[in-house]
Prior knowledge:
Number of domains: 2
CATH topology of the largest domain: Beta-Lactamase
CATH architecture of the largest domain: 2-Layer Sandwich
Structural class: alpha+beta
Helix content: 40-55%
Shape: elongated
Strand content: 15-25%
Amino acid sequence: MPEEILTKEQLQKLQEEIVAARMELSILYEIGNAMRTTLKLDEILYIILTGVTAHTGLGFNRAMLFLVNEKERIIEGKMGIGPDTGEEADKIWKNIESEQMNFDDLINAYKLSGKMFDSQFNRTVTHLKISLDEKQGGLLAMAIMDGMPLHLTKDTILKYTNDPLLKILDTEELAIVPLKAKDKVNGIILADNIFTKKPITKDDMRIFIMLANQAGLAIENSCLYERTLIRSHTDSLTNLWNHGYFQFILQEELERAKALHLPLSLIMLDMDFFKVYNDTYGHQKGDMILEEIARIIKNYSRKMDYVCRYGGEEFAIILPQTSKKEAYFIAERLREIIVNHNFPNEETQPNKQLTASIGLATLPDDAQTKSQLIECADKLMYKAKAEGKNKTSAVLD
């Protein structure tokens, strides 16, 4: 049987297909490798969405990721990557090109800073909570329940003009791909080309689905890791971070603050005359007070802060990217909240109420190392106690 001779056009097409296949494998390899470098959920999500949007990745203009919260029966927006305007998009893309940033550069920039560009798009996505019920949750809930990829073209998207999510996105074409682990949908990724208007092709969808297959398992592993981490580093009484995790995360934040030339503040808080309360009412009642104090501190701290039980009736709050002036305001507000809170039997305390003394230290103003920062905050806390208790002590300019 004579061998078939390929025409010049067929040979060229074959070569183009080989180049495209190599590029796809390279993209998936890079993204897969990056996902294996961390188990932190926020970093995993960033890697996934960067893979979807980066010029060296799938190249979509915008991408957003939602995770299923089975306990509350909702779909929560976790992260969105994409500019807010066409002008901003052009500026970002030109900057990436001029800096010659590859995929690893984009990932390392996030890992170093601990945050991404804080766009309005990201804020919009992270505030979204959508019901898992198809009647209420619309397109997103349907995609989760079906567990199948969906490509909404300019024609088919018109069927969903009343969908709440599409009203927010205001897009003409959308790719929706579920994230699966062990045949269970744990989230969903959406992507579009709102600025370039570049059509989403079958090849785009195919590689998007391949990426999502890797991503679903990486997210599942990350969630399992974070649940294990929380259990092993949580104080059993207060459900705050324990002393061991406090030491670890303070060192991490200190190194990050130094690298980025950002402030880092530490609050040390100790309950006044707490031994008197324990001796009078017993340790069980005292533990109830500590649980209540922990709830107060947690509820009135920022999401970015680390609230820890340092030991006994002493608590520590790590405040990343926070100047001394900002931290002092936070400490004073917290002290006043504790003073004004009605605790059981507090009228029998020496000062007729349960109060707290606080010490505040900031990097680089007061210290350069972890041990120096702890020592400074601790000394200032005892200074507050020595000066009459129920006050915040800090070296202010």
